[in-house]
Amino acid sequence: MKNPSLHRYATRPGLYFTDDGGADAIVRSETADQVWFCVLEPLDQPSAFYADAVRLFNEPGLTFIDQAMKQRICTRRIPSLNLRETLFRMDGPNYGLWYVHVPQAWDGMQYGYRVNGPWDPDHGVSFNPYKLLLDPYAKGIEGSMELDPGAFSYECEIVNGKVKGSPFGPMSTIDSVGHVPVSVAIDDRATNKHDGEPSHPHVAWSKTVIYELHVKGFTANAPWLPKELRGTYAGLAHPATLSYLQDLGVTSIELLPIQAKQSELFLQERGRVNYWGYSTLGYFAPEASYATKRSQEAGAAAVRQEVIDMVRALHEAGFEVIMDVVYNHTCESGPEGPTVCWRGLDNLAYYRRTKDKISRLYDTTGCGNTLDFTNTHVTTFAVDSLRYWAKRIGIDGFRFDLAATLARLDGEFTRYHPFLYALRSDMLLGNLKMIMEPWDCGPNGWRTGEFGIPFAEWNDRFRDCTRKFWLTDVDRMRGGEYGEMTMQEMATRLCGSSDLFATDPGRGSTASVNYVACHDGFTTADLTMYKTKHNEANGENNRDGTNDNHSVNFGHEGPSGDQIIVQQRQRATMNLLGTLLLSLGTPMLLAGDEFGNSQNGNNNAYTQDNDTTWLDWDWLYSTEQTPELKQFNLTSRLITLRKSRDLYNHEDFFTRLSEIGLLKKSDRVHWYLPNGQMPNDADWTNPSVRSFAMQLLSPDEPSLLILINGSDEVTRFHLPKDIEWEMVWSSSEIVGEYPGLGTSIERVSEFDEESESKPAGRLRNHLHRINMMYWQMKDDADNLQSADDGLSEDDPTLWTLPALSISAMKQMPTV
C-alpha cells in the first residue's frame, strides 16, 4: 500500500520513504522555535543535495546555527570527522509536529534533528541546537555516546573521568556530532517482507512455561557455536541452541531488553556498562552489540534482519518470543545526564515534573527520570513502538519493566490508566501476552495483582513464600523455632494466588507469573549457597542489590566440597523448582536454573558483562552423569509432566457468584494431611504443620496429587482411598532417593567395585558409604516413630516421602 501524501494533519512522527525517491520527516516538539532535519554524508563522496543546499563557511562572529537560521537548506563540512551535514529547515509546529520533505533518501542514510528554542533549565526548558538528536522513531541506530563535553547540553568538562558542571548553568555551544549516536533510515516499503514467515505458536496461557534469558549471556560461552556466533541473535537462532531449548521443554522465551541501549552516566564515569540493558536509547531500533560482527559492519538494516531471523527461527522451533521493554524511563538520566534525544526535543513534554518545582524531574524509577504517561503523545509513542515490534519483528508478547510507573495519574497508580486502556483495546497488542512488573520506586509502589484483565503480572509473593518455606523456615526449624509460612499461605500460592489475582470475573491463576529467581537477584542455586549478597565486583562497596533474599547457605558460604551440604542444597533447589512448576499459575524459569547456574553470590549483576553472568556450559559435554545433567533431566521431566496435563488452566477461583458472596467448595482442588484427613481450621494457620497433600482434579482426566514434606523427617502419607497412584516425579531423586510404597524409601546404590582401584573411584565409594550409613541411622529413627502415627503398614495407599521433598503422583486410569 502506498503511503498517503503528507498533510498538516498527519499525527504520526517518523521517517517515511516516498515514491519520488525522497522521504517525509515528521518529529514532535511542542515548544521549540525551530527544528532542522539533518543528514550526514561522507565528505569524500558527492552529496545527494548539492543542487539544493547552500554551503556554509566559517564566518567571524557567526556560528553555523546562526547561518542555518537564514537558509532553507544548507550544508557544512566537518573535516575532522570526514562528514558533511546538510540541514533542512522544517515547517511547524502544527499540533506540535514539524514537517519536511527530503528530495532524496536512501536505505542506511544517517540522520538526526537539531532543535532551537529557549534555554531556561530553571523552568524545565533546555533547547540546544548544537546537539544532534536521535529520531525517537528511528528503526536503526549506529554509533555510541562518548563521555565528552559535546554530549551534554550544559557547559561542562570531564575531569578524571567525571563530568563537572551544572545542568542549570550556561548552555554548551560544542557540536555533539561525533560524540553521540545517529539515527539510520531503513526502507521498509517492500510488499514481500513477510514472505516465508512462520506462523506464531500462540501458546495457551495454561501451557505456557516462560524462560527468561539474556541474548548475549545465554550463548557467550556456548561450545556448540563458532566464535563469531557466540553471544549474538544468530547464536540464539542456531539449530543446536533451539534443540537444547526444546529438550528442556519451555514454551516462551522472554528476552531481557534488546532495544538499543546506552549505559547510565554514573556507569560510564566508572568505566562500566549496563549489561542487562534496562537503559533504553531507542524504542524502535534493536541493540546492535548483540548482532554478529558481519551484521554490525553491514549496517543497521542487517542488524535488524538478524533480529527478525532470530524470531522466525524461534517460531519455527515452536517457541513464542516475549520481549522485556523499558518505557518507564530513558537513558538520559536526571538533568545532569547527556542530551541524545527526548531532552533536546521537548524536555517538558516527555518527562514527568515535580509539582512544586518544574525544573525538577519526578522520579519513580530510581533512574533519574520518568516518562510522562499522562501526556497522550507519550502513550501514542509507546504504543507505536510496541506495534512495530509485534508487526514487523514478530514479537509475541511484552514484559513491562516497573509497570506501576506507566499507570500513574497525578502520581497515583490506577488500573484505569489511559495507557493500559490503549494496550487492552489495540487490535494487535490486546491479543498478545502482556506481563507487568507490578511495582516501582514511587509512593505506594507495590501493586501486585491490581492490573486486571488481560494483563499477567510477576508474583513476588509467590517468590518470597516459596523461598521462605523451603529455605529460611527450614533453617529456623532446625534451630528450634517456628517458621513464617503456614499451610494457608503455601496453599494460596500453590493455587495461583487468588488473594492477589481474583480481581476480575474470569481472571484466573494464569495471570500470576510465578517465579523463584529472575535476572534481578540470586539465581536459584545461589539461594542455597549464599546467606548474604556478594556484589563487590559491581564497584559499589556491596551496597547495591537487595538484602532481603530469604536465602541460606547450609552452614557454609559459597561452594562446598562437603557432600552432605551439597546434597542438602541440591534437594532444596529441586524443592524450589518443583513448587514453581507444580503450582497453578504461569511458571517462569531463569536461564541456567535448570542446571544449577551460579553468579558467585552476586544478586545485582547488571554491570557484569563477563563470566559472572555468561552461562557455563562445560557440563553439557561431560562423559559422566554430572549433577548439572541430573538437575536438567529432573527439571525437563517436570516441565513435560506439567504440559501434558490440562489441570493448569484454572480460571474459576473467582466468579460472579463468589463476587456476591455465594461461596462453594472447590471441585478443582482438595487438601489432605499425611494421615489422610482433611485439615481443620487450626491446621491451616499452624506454622508447625509443614506436610500436606494437594490433589488437582478435573472431570476430563485423572487427578494429580502433589505431596509436600516440609519437615526434616521422613513422613508417610495416606493417599486418597480407592485410587491407584503412581509416583511420576520427586525432588529427592536428585540425591538418589525415591518415595516408596508402604514404609520404604528406595535409594539408588552408586557403589562401583571396578572403580575401587582408582583414587577418584575410591573417594566416590567412600562418600557413598557415609551416605548409606547416614540413611541407615535415619531409618532406625523412623522405625521408632512409625508405631505412633496411626497409619497401617498394610494399607496399599500408604507412601513414604523423604524429608524436605516435594513429589507428584498421578492417578492411574481405571481399567
TrEMBL record:
Domain Glycosyl hydrolase family 13 catalytic: 212-642
Location of region: Disordered: 536-558
Superkingdom classification of source: Bacteria
Lineage, broadest ranks: Bacteria, Bacillati, Actinomycetota, Actinomycetes, Bifidobacteriales
Compositional bias of kind Basic and acidic residues: 536-547
Signal peptide: none
Cited CDD domains: AmyAc_Glg_debranch (cd11326), E_set_GDE_Isoamylase_N (cd02856)
NCBIfam families: glgX_debranch
Family: Belongs to the glycosyl hydrolase 13 family.
Protein name: Glycogen debranching enzyme
